[in-house]
Amino acid sequence: MREWVELFMIRSMQDLARFIKQADLNMAQYSTLMRLHHLDNCGVSDIGEKLGITNAAASQLVDKLVQAGLVARTEAAHDRRVRQLALTDEGRALVKSSLEARLSWTRGLGESLPPAKRDAITQALSDMIAAGQRLEQPEA
Questions:
Q1: Which of 6, 34, 49, 139 could serve as a FRET partner for 17 with CA atoms 20 to 30 Å apart?
Q2: CATH number for the domain including 12?
């Protein structure tokens, strides 16, 4: 299993690095886009905290993403002084493309297997996912 995880991670990271370079992003910018993808929206300070950078640095990073049309700033409903960040349609499309780039190799790998083996592997992976989720649950 360790060999599979290593192979998968190497390929996944190679494909991601290639995508980020082609998209003319750096890892901090990509991480910001992914954070917004998973949270829907957040503030600049949330980005700074997640990346371990100052609010000023986070603000500069976000400025570049806003200028690129990938992120939009809006006023928070509860306080107009608070600015929320969210992906634009273009930002969502870029994130979707990045996820596809990371998964294309595994999709091709699965399609190269005979259906019976693919079904057996799918079942085994489903069992592993369920076991992993159980391990993540706090003990009662």
A1: 49
A2: 1.10.10.10
Q: Which pair of tokens denotes residue 7?
A: 């192979």
Which of 8-12, 48-52, 76-80, 116-120 shows the lowest mean pLDDT across its residues? 76-80
Q: With H, G, I as helix, E, B as strand and everything else as coil, classify residue 87.
A: strand
CA distance 33 to 65: 9
Strands 41-42 and 71-76, how do they pair? unpaired
Give the pLDDT band (50/70/90) at residue 140. low
Domain that holds residue 128: 2-136
Amino acid at 61: L
Which string of b and e fits 78-103 if b means at least 16 CB within 10 Å?
eeeeeebbbbbeebeebbeebeebbe
pTM assigned to the model: 0.78
d(CA 63, CA 81): 17
